[in-house]
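Why should sequence recovery work at all? Because a backbone constrains its sequence more than one might expect. Tight turns favour small or flexible residues, buried strands favour hydrophobic ones, and helices have their own preferences. The token representation captures these environments compactly. In the example below, the structure is given first.
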């Protein structure tokens, strides 16, 4: 079997995994690459005056990383532009935030072409290529134009939007047609897979069979749901590390007998943080007896702060949390502890374990790994309660959580009340089922099922060629 080449927008530099600062997606990819002794190709995050296509190759931990620098204009038009100001808000149902600028789509096409141009010479005949996420939707097309006939798969980490939303995007058909140069397209959920199939049938006049063969634009591809998981085993052992024990103790001793509700998110408008704060405020209003008996710890790591919508959400959250704290706090109690920094995985695991409730209420989310990490970090003898948005992909798998509509303050407030009062027996029964799923459907299962499905495909099949 050939090597695995993973392509993603950003690549975590070797060494970050050891430092414990790598996020869920990066952990997932490193695990896959170690198994297939592959290459991880992507943007270095650096820019230079002109694009040279020169690669910086580094080896670490059984993984070869190949990085390419882009130009500043690429960063603005491709990364901050089309990826994060057009596709991200659109695919997260925030049409009010979508910017359609011609220079963005040009920059997006240019960077995908530059990726293909730099990657193509590295590809050997037996390799299989796995492209990650919405930054690189047209990459297969660009590679095919450079005579790369290898198997190429694509995995979308974010939701696929409903047809009516997608058709608001100028040149949407071109974007979708480009996907048909992949041999396999993976989605997080059946819901996303079905939304894609709906577009193929209703907007592109194509067809999709029961087993996921999609035909349109004179081409065929296969589609499927491959829900991503966490590295559950390593996360559970991180939860037992000294660092985790220390952060657990530190968090628990700061409780002073109170119960802790925890949110952990990238600071992003899709995560529903403002709505979460307001729902928590509703809970405090509905249950005055609970005031001073609980607090919300919200850890929100700033991200994409060159994009205005992210600066806006950051200042809104500061203002909403400040207002709630101003209205409810007492000399020895602050209802919301709002923290804007990142934590190492092991430290984070200890904080998860200390929390009585994990509050995961995105307004839209491809999967949401925090929900799974929260479950993996719990003490089996005294587990906390997961409250989970029905609009997170994870809700398709995690039905034993308290499932809520994140737009409904009343529902979220009521789930908080229920979670705080839930008897140990019920907490354990729910957690047992959740934990079994998190362990079974982990990142290894995700990787293996995607790679096996990709290898079953014959590369480069067109509809007019025999399958
Ligand atoms: P994200 O939108 O980044 O990922 P998520 O799945 O929650 O969302 O992953 C976030 C990761 O970052 C988690 O592993 C979490 O532990 C980590 N993290 C968040 N805040 C942190 C902090 N303060 N300190 C340290 N670590 C922190 C995208 C999609 C998701 C999809 C993933 C993977 O938007 O829907 O689940 O990719 O496919």
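From this structural description, the recovered sequence reads:
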């Amino acid at each position: 079997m050939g090597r695995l080449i993973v392509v993603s927008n950003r690549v975590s530099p070797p060494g970050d995994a050891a430092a414990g600062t790598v996020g869920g997606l990066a952990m997932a990819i490193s695990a896959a690459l170690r198994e297939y002794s592959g290459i991880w190709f992507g943007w270095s995050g650096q820019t230079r005056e002109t694009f040279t296509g020169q690669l910086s190759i580094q080896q670490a931990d059984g993984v070869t990383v190949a990085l390419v620098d882009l130009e500043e204009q690429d960063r603005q038009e491709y990364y901050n532009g089309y990826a994060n100001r057009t596709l991200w808000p659109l695919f997260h149902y925030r049409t009010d935030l979508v910017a359609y600028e011609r220079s963005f789509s040009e920059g997006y096409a240019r960077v995908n072409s530059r990726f293909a141009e730099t990657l193509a010479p590295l590809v050997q005949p037996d390799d299989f290529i796995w492209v990650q996420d919405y930054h690189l939707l047209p990459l297969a097309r660009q590679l095919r134009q450079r005579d790369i006939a290898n198997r190429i798969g694509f995995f979308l980490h974010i939701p696929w939007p409903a047809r009516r939303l997608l058709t608001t995007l100028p040149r949407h058909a071109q974007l979708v047609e480009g996907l048909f140069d992949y041999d396999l397209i993976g989605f997080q959920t059946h819901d996303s897979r079905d939304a894609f199939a709906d577009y193929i049938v209703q907007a592109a006049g194509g067809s999709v069979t029961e087993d996921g063969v999609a035909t349109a634009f004179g081409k065929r591809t296969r589609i499927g749901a491959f829900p991503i998981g966490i590295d559950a085993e390593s996360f559970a052992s991180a939860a037992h590390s000294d660092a985790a024990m220390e952060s657990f103790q530190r968090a628990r001793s700061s409780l002073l007998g109170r119960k802790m509700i925890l949110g952990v998110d990238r600071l992003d408008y899709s995560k529903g943080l403002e709505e979460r704060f307001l729902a928590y405020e509703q809970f405090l209003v509905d249950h005055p007896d609970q005031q001073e008996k609980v607090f919300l710890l919200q850890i929100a790591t700033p991200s994409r702060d060159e994009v205005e919508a992210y600066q806006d959400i950051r200042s809104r959250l500061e203002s909403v949390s400040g207002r709630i704290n101003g209205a409810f706090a007492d000399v020895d109690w602050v209802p919301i502890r709002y923290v804007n920094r990142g934590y190492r995985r092991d430290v984070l695991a200890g904080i998860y374990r200390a929390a009585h409730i994990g509050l995961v209420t995105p307004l839209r989310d491809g999967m949401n790994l925090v929900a799974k990490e929260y479950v993996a970090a719990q003490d089996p003898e005294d587990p906390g309660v997961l409250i989970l948005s029905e609009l997170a992909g994870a809700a398709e798998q995690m039905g034993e959580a308290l499932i809520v509509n994140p737009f409904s303050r009343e529902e979220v407030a009521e789930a908080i009340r229920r979670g705080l009062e839930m008897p140990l027996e019920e907490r354990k029964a729910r957690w047992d089922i959740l934990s079994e799923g998190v362990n079974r459907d982990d990142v290894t299962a995700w990787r293996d099922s995607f790679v096996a499905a990709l290898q079953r495909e014959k590369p480069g099949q067109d509809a007019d060629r025999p399958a």
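A few observations help interpret the result. The chain has a mean pLDDT of 93.
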